[in-house]
Amino acid sequence: MKHVHMPKVDARYWASITMASIFGTNLGDFYAHESGLGIVAGVGILAALAGLVFLAERRDTRAHELYYWLVIIIIRTGATNIADYLAFRVHIPAIPLSIALGAAIAGFAAWMAMTESKAEIEANRGLPDTDGKYWVAMLFAGVFGTVLGDVCSHYYTEANASLGLGLILAVILLGRWQGIVAAIPGYWLTVSVARTAGTAMGDWLAENKIFDIGLSVSTLITGCVFVGILLLWRSTARLNPA
Question: How many CB atoms sit inside 10 A of residue 212's CB?
Fold first, then answer.
């Protein structure tokens, strides 16, 4: 993506990524349950939508983040469906699947760390280069987070998993803020934990008996909060046309 369409990696960015993970969990489940398309057609439509967003982004020179966040949500929605298909239709054991996906993300992170300099990351507003491998890694992180989030919810309950994973995410973000966590490996570690925490939190919000709001209302609420963060919380540095 063009620099003018990239968000700055700051507190707002991580709040948006986390909320996108929660919203994407709900939206992915809602899309799978209500569309009736099945995994192949459903993911195919999402892939086509992502392709249209990328095509529009290439033609647009205005400074805004719309395309980036649209692709993030489309990929997160698709990742939820892919993970559920692998776990519940193909019946791949969740723990080996999580390990394989985690290894793939680590491989992408190592690849990016070797090919991108600190100056390039700073020029990209703190993001790795948002090329093809970036978006493939983002899809893997979404599938990984869905699978591992479901595992944590199964063993520790959705409420406990949400709290525990949220605390882990907060510790990692603190480490990034203090410069303890390395740039690109730390970025993908944070994304993966945010995806995992978002799965547990999204499922807990939709399924818990305290609020008893159901999947549809939960999707609406998390979507509104996600959009609200993007619209009302502005980064300190503005996008400059390049």
Answer: 8
Cα separations (Å) of 3 from 43, 115, 126, 172? Answer: 28, 18, 11, 26
Question: pLDDT tens, 187-219?
Answer: 999 999 999 999 999 999 999 988 899 999 999
- Rounded Cα–Cα distance for residues 164 and 170 (Å): 10
- Within 8 A by CB and 6+ apart from 209, the residues are none
Q: Is the pTM higher than 0.70?
A: yes
| C-alpha dihedral sign at 14, 51, 225, 240 | positive
Exposed, middle or buried, 117 (CB in 10 Å: 0-12/13-18/19+)?
A: exposed
Alpha helices in the chain (DSSP H): 11-35, 38-59, 66-84, 94-115, 118-123, 132-156, 158-177, 183-207, 214-232
**Is residue 2 a contact partner of residue 57, using CB atoms and an 8 Å limit?**
yes
